[in-house]
Amino acid sequence: MSDPRPLPLAGIRVADFFWLIAGPATSRVLADCGADVIKIESHARLDNIRLTGPQPSEPGSLDTNAVFNDVNTNKRSVTLNLGTPRGVELAKEIVRHSDIVTNNFTGDRMDRWGMGYEALRAIKPDIIMLTMPVMGTTGPYVRYGAYGNGVIGYGGMRTNMGFPGRPPVGIAPLYSDFSAPYFAVSALMAALYHRERTGEGQFIDLAQMESAVSLLGTGVLEYTANGHIPEPPGNRARDYAPHGAYPCWGADRWCAIAVRDDAEWRALCAAIDLPALADDPRFATLADRKRNEDELDALIAGWTRERDAWQITHLLQSRGVIAGVVEDLEDMLIRDPQLPVLHFERLQREDEAVAFTTHRQPARFDGASLPLRRGPRMGEHNEEVLTGLLGLSHEEYVQLLIDRVVY
Amino acid sequence: MSDPPQGPLAGLRALDLAGEPGLFAGRMLAELGAEVIRVEPPGGDAVRRRPPFLDGSDPPISLYHLHFNAGKRGLTLDIRHPDGAALLRRLAAVSDIWIDSAAPGEMDALGLGYAGLAVAQPGLVYATITPFGQEGPLRDYRANDLIGAAMSGLMYLNGMPEDPPNVPGAEQAYHMAALAAVSAALVAIAGRERDPGRRGRRIDVSIQEAASMATLQTANANIYAWHHRIPARTGMSALGGGRALFACRDGKWISFTIPVGPGPFFGFFLDWLAEAGVAHALSEAWLDPSYRTQHSAPVMDAIAALCAKHDREALFHEGQRRRLLVMPVNDVADLVHDRQLRARDYFAAVAHPTLGRTLELPGAAYHFSATAAGIRTPAPAAGEHTDELLETLRGVDRAERDRLRREGVL
Asked: What mean pLDDT, rounded, does chain A reach?
């Protein structure tokens, strides 16, 4: 037996100044892939996400909220008070031992600490630094701030969906917090590839709102090339019919069904015991079905309404029709045939009563899920990082605690 | 004249065999400077026939193709023909990344599975995007973007409570799958560069799992485990309670994030409402976080009154000047004319010689200090680079190419 291969980013170290959600979700990917991510935080300037989010019981603690723990697996936490010169010195020492530095502060926070790109490059010439605030690091709105619910609106993800005449509610809040990280990881890995080939590090400026605009598909071209703003499509698609969420038995239960070609249409008609419908001229071709889509949707809904969403899914899939439950959280955690086992994992430490549920990374490497370790308690790794990585003596470490530099 | 600056992935070659779910992965690799070879069947694939279309084009030109295949090179090859599959194996032997979205087992049946390709090119990173992953009881179920959004939990939470769940716009389940695949592939590439054995990896992405990442549902799983609550569609409600969306005087919409918790921000907010003359119903009591959580209606009424008095643009800038998280609800026209995006040179003006036009496309969402990023070339014509690529990469000469063309392989 040979040893299992090391994780892909084993040996990479990240000095991680991220806070809130989009940033930590980015460095979580790196940590899950094997990088040593050192989260640098402080009681003097709390990562507010430690305060904001569901707790197992009230009042809860900085270490137990669900959102924090969902985006910080596999990291180490060091608390350094960057309001003190010594705290900044120690943070720079961590940078000197790192390959990547990350932050998502709006404005010049890192510069004011003396840790802008040029300053850090002087310490570690091939450092890769990522700054990913909402608006990026240049432009007239560079100081403007938002959470993910504002970013999706700015980025066009509220107006490109929904039913006509309804308020532009858009996609679930915080979508950008969970999509921007994959742009950021890709950019970081491209920069790391470049560094491995050339020895050259660099600065990466990523605007979270631009990553939302990059997810609008053909929306931008429809305006720049055709000169019009596409209508929100509801649950329909231009080259499918039927296509939508159909009501099922039970409260707020829905099944999505999508039919693209005539063979799938005939398969659907047979599956729902209405084979004659396949010969109905109102629905014979995609163009016919699009023309009579309201009638079509009413017919399908008449069949789905008294049936269970999962039974519909399994029946239609077995007949070659694309269908699936509109899953709520209980579906995802219990009823789905594979998400509860393959995607979710419960993380519990021996010394804690509470278990955290989180997701695995959606990419498997060589058939295996990446191993997960629960997110760090505040300052959990202070001593091992400062006396280990930075080589301070135990006495020096204790003095830093007394001086509230390690805080 | 110096050469134009190269992207960070200069020197990296990717074979893009993906269908709709994975097209965005190859587009990002192209933005980042990789040579991305789009492999399609002779005559071009179905992506080229997908709506929406360029107005007035005949035969219709797919904007879907122009957007998602921008920056790629085009090669046509019948991978179902043994000679085509053999040629593709030779190309994979000189490539770094492979991306496909074929059904589980389909590429293996064509002799194009990972195990075989990795023998000739151990450094290959082979990424597959499938609806439910390569393993598991649902592996043979089919899905499009709608089903991916539905079964990932991404769809259930969108929309007004009284409406059916809303599918996200512009195929977000596909986008999340492509993002997961391209980021993981690049993780594997970066790891390979540091591995003395320079070994690649096989990457397996499930659309369902990737899309499920993009919700709060994975954190919400704890709400279910701890408190047995199931989140529902909240419509216009804000995360911390109250309302998030308001109509402005000019009919446009704006979002407000009401400051929660202690700190000065809610005070900034009350000052604004008072100066605007819409805070009659509000008192100092609202500075207390717990009080305002329980009495949010008068605050919401005051914001609604404020918004009704002003245009969106003015509210946006005034709110941000006051350090409040106020953001416009933009449409694509707003974005194309947006000062911030323009100042950052976000859009890519790409000449499309066959159309005789330059079209503006979404550009790269990242700027690098030492390397370039972005889209420079239009989506390729079907097979536009077949001859050049086969000649330069594998020395397939003209006589051989002519034979393969006669047999319908190219």
From this structure: 96
